[in-house]
Write a structure and sequence with these properties.
4 helices, flat, mainly alpha
Length: about 170
């Protein structure tokens, strides 16, 4: 079994001290920086589709059962094996039934929480889509109003030219 060497950080600290004494710059990163960079959860991108699929599968299989079908691959002595397996299961039931019930309660809580998070993400996505749609509508409205303003400015300029022409004609 390979164990992580806890002396890595001490080695890096010693390298930093040695370079500080020599006046040179040490560009070694710390072990924590290395670990966060390679294995940190902050580097993981959120995949909405995968999350929603995982929540769906979590909610569909969040309960476990204590009772399992008894099987035996010994053709001749199968009834005897079944008998002893049933006895062993009944003897151990008082140990496992509370554990299974507690695990099912916990699984249901986690599943419910994940469902709430999924609903929150979906609601946020729906809200974002409504805002994007409204933003597009307002941009279209602004573009239409800008076109109307240009047309009105053009009409005003034409009227000014006409007025200037008329004033110029009356003065002569």
């Amino acid at each position: 079994m390979i164990k992580n060497n806890a002396g890595i950080q001490q080695f890096l600290d010693a390298a930093h001290e040695e370079t500080d004494k020599s006046g040179k710059q040490c560009d070694l990163i710390t072990f924590n920086e290395f670990w966060d960079d390679k294995y940190g959860a902050s580097e993981k991108n959120f995949d909405r589709g995968a999350f929603l699929n995982n929540v769906g599968s979590l909610q569909s299989v969040n309960q476990i059962t204590y009772y399992q079908e008894l099987t035996s691959y010994k053709k001749g002595i199968a009834p005897v094996v079944f008998f002893f397996k049933r006895i062993i299961r009944k003897i151990n039931a008082f140990l496992f039934l509370p554990l299974v019930a507690a695990q099912n309660t916990f699984n249901l809580s986690v599943s419910s929480f994940a469902g709430h998070v999924r609903n929150y993400i979906n609601r946020e996505e729906d809200t974002r889509m409504v805002f994007l749609k409204r933003e597009k509508e307002l941009e279209d409205k602004i573009a239409l109003q800008d076109a109307q303003i240009r047309d009105l400015k053009k009409a005003v300029n034409e009227l000014r030219e006409t007025v200037d022409t008329l004033k110029g004609g009356n003065v002569r």
